[in-house]
Design a protein that fits this description.
390 residues; Rossmann fold; 3 domains; binds flavin-adenine dinucleotide
Length: 390
C-alpha cells in the first residue's frame, strides 16, 4: 500500500494520526523534526519537579465541548481559569483590561462616568475590541481607548510582531479585547482546562497505537519529492497516498514564492530561591524593553512540589531565521496584507495535488489556538476518510 505520511507531531498531526490509525486501521508514519513529540505544547519537569511548557504557556480554552470530550480520552483535565496582570506605569493592572483596570488607570471618579457610558453603549457585550473604543462617538470612550492603545497595545505590538499596529492584521489585535465588567479571567470561554499530568503525557497517550510510528529528529523535507507534471508525491522514493503537512507551508514548496514571515521567541529562564515570585501566573510587560511576558510555571500546574524554589520564563520576541541557533522555530505567522497574498500562492500550489492536507497554525498560516486546530483536525479527518476509503 502507498504511504500515509504526517509531518509534525503537534495537535494537528497527532490527532489525524490517531484517527487514521484507529478508525481506518491504516499504518501512519509521523515525521518530526524536533527531538520530542507534542509540538509547541511540549512540557517537561525541570530539576526541581516543576512542569515547564518549553514553548510558552498553553491553556486549553474553548466553547466547543466536542474538543474537551476528545481530549478526555487521552488525559484527565483540571479546571484552570487563566489570570493575567499587565505592568503599566509601575503598577499591576488586570488583563484583559476590565472595569477594575479602568478604575486603576483613570481613578474612581472619572471611571464612574466611563463605566456607566460603556455599560449603556455595549449592552449585552462581554468583550469589546480596542478598535471599537477608538472609533466610538463618545469622546471619553475614545480617549480611554487611546490611553489603552498608547500604554499597552502599541508598544506590545511593536515588540511582539516587529511591526506597527496599522501594519498587522486587525484580527491579531482583536485577540485581547476589553472586558465590559469586572471579570478577572483572561478568557471568557466555557471550558478552561489543563491536562492533569501535562501535555506531553497527553500526546504520548494519543500516539500510543500499534499503527503509528513516530520518527523524531527527522526533517521531512529532504525525503519528500514532488512530481510537478503528474502531481504525485514520493517519500523516500515510495508513493505517497496521503501527505498531512503541519509545518511551514513555504518550506514545503522550497520557498518558491519567497519566504513567509513568522515570528519566533527567545525564552530565558531565571531561578529564584523563593516559594513564589510573581503576583500572577503570567505578567504582560507592554512598556518593558525587549520582552513581552513573564510566566511563573509553579502557579499554573497541579501537584507543585513544596520547595522554596521557583522559575520564571521571560519571552523575548525575535525574527524567525531557520539558520540561526536562537529564533529558528516559527511560533507565529505574521499576518499582513502582503503575507496573506503570498500564502494564497502556496495554498494554490498545494491544491495541484489531490492528496496534500495542510493542517494547523503554520501550514494554514493562521493564528489558530489549540481548540481550533483540534476542531479542524477532527473535521479534516472526515474528508481524509473519504479519500482513503475510496
Ligand atoms: C507562546 C505561545 C503560546 C500559546 N498559547 C496558547 C494557549 O494558551 N491556548 C491555545 O489554545 N493556543 C495557544 N498557542 C497556539 C498553539 O501553540 C497552536 O495552536 C498549536 O501549537 C498548533 O498546533 P499545530 O499542530 O498546528 O502546530 P505545532 O504545535 O507547531 O506542530 C507542528 C510540528 O511540526 C513539526 N515540523 C515542522 N516542519 C517540519 C518538517 N519539515 N519536518 C518534520 N517536522 C516538522 C514541528 O517541529 C512541530 O512539532 C500558543 C502559541 C504560542 C507560540
Amino acid at each position: 500500500m502507498d504511504k500515509i505520511i504526517i509531518v509534525g507531531s503537534g495537535f494537528s498531526g497527532s490527532i489525524l494520526a490517531r484517527k487514521i490509525a484507529e478508525e481506518l486501521n491504516r499504518k501512519v508514519l509521523i515525521v518530526e523534526r524536533r527531538n520530542h513529540i507534542a509540538g509547541n505544547m511540549f512540557d517537561e519537569y525541570d530539576e526541581n519537579g516543576i512542569l515547564i511548557q518549553r514553548y510558552g504557556p498553553h491553556f486549553i480554552n474553548t466553547n466547543n465541548y466536542a474538543v474537551i470530550r476528545f481530549l478526555l480520552k487521552y488525559s484527565k483535565l483540571f479546571r484552570h481559569d487563566t489570570k493575567l496582570l499587565s505592568f503599566i506605569d509601575g503598577n499591576y493592572v488586570r488583563l484583559p483590561f476590565n472595569f477594575r483596570t479602568m478604575q486603576q488607570l483613570v481613578g474612581d471618579e472619572k471611571s464612574e462616568y466611563l463605566l456607566k457610558k460603556m455599560r449603556s453603549e455595549y449592552v449585552g457585550r462581554d468583550r469589546v475590541p480596542i478598535f471599537e473604543l477608538l472609533n466610538n462617538e463618545d469622546e471619553s470612550i475614545r480617549e480611554y481607548g487611546k490611553l489603552l492603545f498608547e500604554k499597552a497595545y502599541k508598544t506590545y505590538t511593536a515588540k511582539q510582531w516587529g511591526l506597527q499596529p496599522e501594519e498587522i492584521d486587525k484580527s491579531v489585535l482583536e485577540r485581547v479585547p476589553m472586558a465590559m465588567n469586572f471579570d478577572e479571567r483572561y478568557l471568557n470561554k466555557d471550558f478552561q482546562y489543563l491536562p492533569e499530568n501535562g501535555y506531553t503525557e497527553l500526546f504520548k497517550n494519543l500516539l500510543e497505537h500499534p499503527n503509528i510510528e513516530v520518527r523524531l529528529n527527522t526533517d521531512a523535507l529532504p525525503h519528500i519529492e514532488f512530481d510537478e507534471d503528474n502531481h504525485t508525491i514520493k517519500y523516500d522514493g515510495e508513493n505517497v497516498e496521503l501527505l498531512v503537512f503541519t509545518g511551514a507551508i513555504d518550506e514545503l514548496f522550497n520557498l518558491k514564492y519567497g519566504r513567509l514571515p513568522y515570528r519566533s521567541l527567545d525564552i530565558k529562564y531565571d531561578y529564584f530561591n523563593e516559594e513564589k515570585i510573581l503576583p500572577s501566573e503570567i505578567i504582560s510587560y507592554p512598556q518593558a524593553i525587549g520582552y513581552t511576558r513573564k510566566t511563573e510555571y509553579k502557579q499554573i500546574t497541579q501537584n507543585v512540589p513544596k520547595i522554596n524554589k521557583t522559575v520564571v520564563a521571560t519571552e523575548y520576541p525575535i525574527e524567525y531565521d531557520p539558520d540561526k541557533n536562537v529564533g529558528n522555530i516559527p511560533y507565529y505567522p505574521v499576518l499582513t496584507e502582503n503575507s496573506k497574498v503570498a500564502y494564497e500562492k502556496y495554498f494554490a500550489e498545494s491544491k495541484k495535488y489531490g492528496n496534500i492536507f495542510l493542517c494547523g497554525r503554520l501550514a494554514e498560516f493562521k493564528y489558530y489556538n489549540m481548540d481550533i486546530c483540534i476542531e479542524h483536525a477532527l473535521d479534516k479527518f472526515e474528508k481524509i476518510k473519504q479519500i482513503l476509503e475510496v
